[in-house]
Amino acid sequence: MWRYIGRKLFVYLLTFVIAVTINWMIPRFMPGDPVRSMLSRASVGNPEALQRMNDYYTGVFGFDTPLHEQYLAFWGGLLRGDLGVSVMLYPQPVLDIILRSVPYTLALLLPAIILSWIVGNRIGAFAARKKLLDNTVLPVGYVLTAMPYMWLALLLAWSLGIVAGVLPTSGGYSPTLRPEFSWLFISSLITHWILPFLSMFIVALGGWAIGMRNMIIYELEADYSNYLQALGAPSRLIRRYAFRNAMLPQITGLAVQLGTVLSGALLTEIVFNYPGLGTLILQALNNRDFFVLQGTFLFVVVGVLIANFIIDIVYVLVDPRTRVQMTGGAA
Amino acid sequence: MTLRVNDLKVYYQTLRGDVHALDGVTFDLADGEIMGLAGESGCGKTTLGKSLIRLDTRMRHVGGTIELDGKDVPIADDKAMVPLRYHEISLIPQYAMSALNPTRKIGRMINELLRARGVRPVDIADELRRRLELVGLDPDVLNRFPIELSGGMKQRVVMVMSTLLNPSLLIADEVTSALDVSTQRAVAESLVEFRDREYVKSMVFVTHDISLVYQMADTIMVMYAGHIVEKASASTIVNAPRHPYTQMLISALPEVGTTTDQGRLEGIPGTPPGLLNPPTGCRFKDRCPLAFSKCSERPPLVEIEPGHWAACWKTG
Amino acid sequence: MSEIAGAPGTADAADAPEPTAERKTSEVLHFAVRNPKLLIGLGIVLTLLLTGIIGPFFIDHDPNEYVGPQSQPPNGEYWLGTTSFGQDIWAQFVYGLRSTFLIGAFGGGVAFVIGTTVGFVAGYKGGIIDEILNMLTNVVLVLPALVVLIVATAYLDVRGIFVQGVFIGLTSWPWAARAVRSQALSLSTRDYVDLARLSGRRTWRIITTEIAPNMSSYLVMSFILLFGGSILIAAGLDFIGLGPSNGVSLGLMLESAMKWSSLYLGMWWWFIPPGLGITTIVGSLYILNVGLDEVFNPKLREL
Q1: Is C7 on the interface with B (CB under 8 A)?
Q2: Per residue in B16-58, pLDDT tens?
Q3: Touching check for A163 and chain B: CB below 8 Å?
Q4: Which of A312, B53, B198, B265 sits a CA distance of 20 to 30 A from A102?
Q5: Which chain A residues are closer than 8 Å to B148 by Cβ?
Q6: What's the mean pLDDT when you consider all of chain A?
Q7: Hey, which CATH number is domain C96-298, 3.40.1190.20, 1.10.3720.10, 3.90.1150.10, 1.10.10.10?
Q8: What confidence category does residue A330 fall into, taking pLDDT thresholds of 50, 70 and 90?
Q9: Residue of A198 and A328 predicted with greater confidence
Q10: How far does the CA of residue B98 sit from the closest CA of chain A (Å)?
Q11: ipTM over 0.95
Q12: Which of B43, B56, B275 should be substituted to probe chain C, the one whose Cβ sees the most C Cβ atoms within 10 Å?
């Protein structure tokens, strides 16, 4: 058990180190001067201020020190929780800016992933029952997974938001309100949340439904299903076993799909101008604010790693096969 | 008479047409009889085993009847078969190693199956433990997951589970082929013991291993290309077979108790005919050294001496 | 399964001995031309591919040129209407299809080469090499591809479709490596591979002559999935504004539609075609893949 967790932890730690290293390398080894390129769009009228920023960033990169010192200094800053200072919102620390956006992204991502997983699994299991149903669910599922997240977001924003005019299509809450704990503000939050959530939910649904359908068909053809059928067990019992056994690979699928759904969340946010990490990335790109960009990257990677680890542990707890193997069961 | 199969025809449906896997099979199985069902792979023996309990989706019942303890067995009607399954007819499948749900504890799976078949698990719990002990398993296996058991242990669990409701007929389909020789013996002996204790009334033991079946079975039935060629007591089939196919099959075996240095083993030349458009008449005639003009008619299965049936014009 | 042995046997006896490979091919064809999923998927993909290849030859201006009246809905002259700058959306769409197929083939190709190589070597060699490659695969697998790509391409001042393809390939190979590895692992223990190994053949030759051909159908399907995946990732990158500089692609069309408020101007003809194009291509590829799976995998063939 601990060996398995230790192994997983090691891979995640390694991934983190590699991600940090990529993050450190990119501005240094890509062609061009990162500081000049970064400040080229900074709208600072005062040349003195610009010079100050220039000095600050050159200092942060530490171009005058040897590479390995730059690398160690980079890690040092990181471990102190220092992701640098933003260019577009100079002199705000990058970490603060990111932390402001994270709740919005999580509010979209977590419900969208979890609900689409649950509903998708149900639909997939249901589809495996009937030929007719299967022939509709399967193509629809594939078309949904083939859909770029931002496109469905655009379609929903246009149809439900603009044409039907029932839901707002931009921002995290109404621009006339200020964040506060009031019914008015919360209801504004919710109405602004519905469309981005819905579009992510729908796209993600397809993949889960297809995965579940394939897994359950496989399970229904498994030897234990045949055996139970030969012994006259009702299909209710067999389906229950198949569903449960098909769920297990779907949990692993959750980890595998995490990156895709996350990308989807970022793209969806951009369409709805939803104030999460996706919109932050777009702003950072437009302002060439590489510190915000790289900080976000690290933040996302850490988030994904933590989520992966949680999924691993859940899997161990849920699947008796791994659980037994890892607690060193007899025989 | 436990089982009476009369002119049973079961075909496989494929895109190319019907495969005549069982083409007019007639035999009886007496109370307490263990019948070995032998033949090359593809001869229809597994199909016959399946037909007695559950046709899979590609199999189609074309004709013939099955009676068990005087009652009709409606194999073409999947729903009507359900009450018979497990209670009257049970199966130890070829894939016994993987027949248990990997994510359920064995005891729980058995209980869920029993409940689904209208049996209260508590009524049978003691018997279940006794039988597990009989086959040499600690009743504690009920609290284990299948992954914690060895292949032989799983095999024995399935044996106990399949026979728990004392069925009239047990179909044991190639149950020993995945096991090593010593385990094969133990399994075969347990099955005989089950019959002796009347856990099962009679048994069809499907195998391609004639030497094993010779030691445990009362009778042996040999099939070839969807037909029955010969049925007789185990010793008769091995020592005095009459049908040319059985003779060649037996002579292809290493002789029991001898080594093989004198005279090398010979297979039967040729391959069995395809069953998509099977030849008319005797299906063995193309490989048969004794074939003559009459063989283009199908030879009937006749009782050439008491308890010894053969389908060949030369033996009639 | 074993009991069906009678079926193929018949064909052998009836139509004289044919070489097995040939027989297998004809059997696959037999099922292929009867599989609606395969035929429909392939039909749509090929139609769009042809449109992308031939279409641009009928357009005599640069797709990004301001050629017509601004913000026109679809009409006889401009089939898909025009943008708010007067660009011909049909022209952009046709060129966009072309670059979408290009990025799919290129990104998918790079990922395929890396993924299969890593998978084969890991699965065949085993031991410490397998451990290391497996770890590498796991590392790249957990990294969210799009986010890595955003950071990596953000520093590039000039981006071309080939650079994009390479970057996408570098981040999207891991699942293919995993899948190929597990297949290769099971194949590498087969007798004929053992025989080849005993006879002293080089690893690379064994992989290419003994193992790969025996999973060719599997490889084809992996490539198709990687192809579709690359298209989607590229569309995402383009949409964020990290697409090929001064290029045309379906993703870039979506980006400019978004950037220039087509949504609020009600110019649906600007953002519907590119997204529909991507969805249709990738969706058809997926359905084509299901069809292929049914054709190659006898278990899935239905009666």
Answers
A1: yes
A2: 778 888 988 999 999 999 999 998 877 888 889 999 998 888 8
A3: no
A4: A312
A5: 324, 329-331
A6: 85
A7: 1.10.3720.10
A8: very low
A9: A198
A10: 6
A11: no
A12: B275
Could A227 and B99 be called an inter-chain contact, meaning their C-beta atoms sit closer than 8 Å? yes
C contacts of A27 (beta carbons < 8 Å): 155
Mutate to test the interface with B, among C1, C2, C3 (most CBs of B within 10 A): C3
Query: Nearest C-alpha of chain B: how many angstroms from A230?
Result: 6
Q: Round to the nearest angstrom and report the end-to-end CA distance of chain C.
A: 14
Pairwise CB contact (< 8 Å): A231 & B103: no
Query: Buried b / exposed e across C135-167, counting CB within 10 Å, b at 16+?
Result: ebbbbbbbbbbbbbbbbbbbbbeebebeebbeb
The answer to whether residue B90 neighbours chain A at the CB level (below 8 Å) is: yes
Beta-carbon contacts of C108 under 8 Å, excluding residues fewer than 6 positions away, are: C169, C223, C226, C227, C228, C229, C230
Amino acid at A84: G
In CATH terms, the fold of domain B1-77+203-253+269-316 is: Rossmann fold (3.40.50)
Residue-wise pLDDT for B178-202, tens only, equals: 778 888 888 888 999 999 999 999 9
CA distance A79 to chain C (A): 20
B144 and chain A: CB distance < 8 Å anywhere? yes
Question: B198: which 2 tokens?
Answer: 């009347």
Q: Is C109 helix (H, G, I), strand (E, B) or coil?
A: helix
| Closest alpha carbon within chain C to B15 | C303
List pLDDT tens digits, range A129-177: 777 777 888 889 999 999 999 999 999 999 998 888 888 888 888 888 8
C1 touching chain B per CB within 8 A: no
With tokens 């199909």, the residue in question is B47
Q: What is the DSSP string of C37-49?
A: HHHHHHHHHHHHH
Looking at residues A21-37, what average pLDDT do you find? 76
> Would you state the pLDDT for residue A201?
95
Percent of chain B residues past pLDDT 90, beyond the cut: 48
More reliable by pLDDT, A61 or B81: B81
Sign of the Cα torsion A256, A257, A260, A261 reads: negative
Q: Which of B249, B248, B243, B223 is nearest to B312 (CA)?
A: B243
Q: CB distance C10–B274 less than 8 Å?
A: yes
Subunits with 3+ Cβ pairs within 8 Å of A are: B, C
What residues in chain C have per-residue pLDDT under 70?
1-24, 298-303
Residue C205 burial (10 A CB sphere; 0-12, 13-18, 19+): exposed
Q: Scanning every residue of chain B, which has its alpha carbon at the shortest distance from the alpha carbon of C13?
A: B274
Interface list for C 14-73 with B (CB within 8 A): 14
Cβ-nearest to A231 among B83, B86, B153: B86
DSSP SS3 for B37: strand
Helices (H), chain B: 45-51, 78-81, 106-116, 121-134, 151-162, 181-196, 210-216, 234-239, 244-251
> What local confidence, expressed as pLDDT, does residue C79 receive?
81
User: What's the rounded Cα separation, in Å, for the pair C186 and A262?
Assistant: 34
Residue-wise pLDDT for C187-196, tens only, equals 777 777 777 7
**Tens digit of pLDDT for each residue in A259-318?**
889 999 999 999 999 999 999 999 888 888 888 888 899 889 999 999 999 998 888 888
pLDDT of the residue at C14: 32
Shortest CA distance from B279: residue in chain C: C10
Task: Assess contact for A74 and A19: CB atoms under 8 A.
Answer: no
Say what the pLDDT of residue C7 is: 35
The answer to whether the CB atoms of A154 and C258 lie below 8 A apart is yes
Residue of chain A whose Cα is closest to the Cα of B110: A228
Residue A327's pLDDT band (cuts 50, 70, 90) = low
In this complex, is the C-beta atom of A221 within 8 Å of any C-beta atom belonging to chain B? no
Cβ proximity of A34 and A290 under 8 Å: yes
